[in-house]
Specification:
single chain; 495 residues; mainly alpha; Tetracycline Repressor, domain 2; Four Helix Bundle (Hemerythrin (Met), subunit A); 3 domains; 25 helices
Length: 495
Amino acid sequence: MIIRYPASSAFRSNGLTTVCKSCLSRTTKQSSRSIARNLSTASSFKIAVSGTTPQLRSEYFSANGILDKARASARRGGITTSTTQTSAIGMQNGASKVSEGTLPTPQSIQDLPHRRRQAARRAAAASAQGDLVLPPNSSSTLTESAAAAPTNSLRRLLPILLSLSKPRLSVLVVLTACATYSLYPVPEMLSPSLTDAPSLSTLTLLFLTTGTTLCAASANAFNMLYEPKWDAMMSRTRNRPLVRKLISTRGAVAFAILSGLAGTTALYFGVNPTVSFLGALNIALYAGVYTPMKRVSAVNTWVGAIVGGIPPLMGWAAAAGQSATEAGDWRELLLGEQNAGGWILAALLVAWQFPHFMSLSWSIREEYKNAGYKMLCWINPNRNGRVALRYSLAFFPICFGLCYYNITEWTFAVASTPINVWLVREAVRFWKLEGQKGSAKGLFWASVWHLPVVMILAMVEKKGMWQRVWRAAVGEPYPDDDEAWLEEDDEDEAV
């Protein structure tokens, strides 16, 4: 016996939001044919028994129980499932029995074609996101904390401002600038024996840290101001303060402008004008070029990599400004062979961002696509893997260059090889499998560990550092001090 569901099953209160138009039309047509077939069967039986043509009157339709129940249930906003079943045995005996009762629950609406397709897409997206385990988003955590705090309170304002500055990204920017500052080769002319000033000023480092932090906060706030509409479409960004309207647009603009002005001012007077210019340039590139380009071309990733390479140059120029012998302008602080180390460290940060971002973006490629961001992860997945592999291989010559230009000892080239090999191995898997089978997750975490390990190794293997430590420990004089003593003895003998 085939059970036909009545048309009324499509009129439940949530029917219009759970059943598409084509399925609703198909269900209604099938139910209409079922009722018409039952009516036709009953009428034919009456004709066969009585031998007369049935006279259908208008009262028949108003007295029909099914239609009465449908009208009454529709008025209440719901419907009681009912149907008329014709028994084959009763038909043979010349009687039609209409039985009312609750039908077995029909197949889930999710079994309808469009629901199956939607479920498949959700499952694929969940599987992709599950392939890459990201740490909790600090901006989202701060936003939740701010939302729970009293309105117009300091406990609410501080987390909102921190969330606008993207604290994790800002900390990464500051650490790269400070690491490069510490890697600058200290010239002998600044050794304590020849000057009262320390080799690298702690006060300069403080201004560098403060100014870089404020510049990064300004750039990130401008980035959020440009994208609230599209941030709401992505799971990673839909909890940002501007999306949740925890702060007004005017307030966010004021924070971005003030932090940018304060940061560049601190760098100008506390460090040098060249570093201040680089900080302002980074704000302009990140907020004015990279952010809008994300919706125009996949080249935005390369622009973002350049933005990430500027903080190392800021740290290098801050240290170089303390040993400047001429005008101390940007040519002296950034150009020339003596400043090649700063550009190599900037190249290290540029190269690192490609395997890191390509693996990160792969797991949320559908969200980038739906939001309209032009990323290689969904435009050209194969090229996405090739780019990650290409820049992973670049770390070998970069680490070799740091040794060649006397930024680190030659042992750094050996010590950095294992971590570089690990990154390249994960990049090869990511390229071959196009992010599948956990390759995106493997490359992401390899990149997360790669940068701090390489930077720490470089600082540990800084050129001449352990020689200075050994001389200080055993009390041996510096070679320059010996030469100075010899010159003084010669002068005394001449007198």
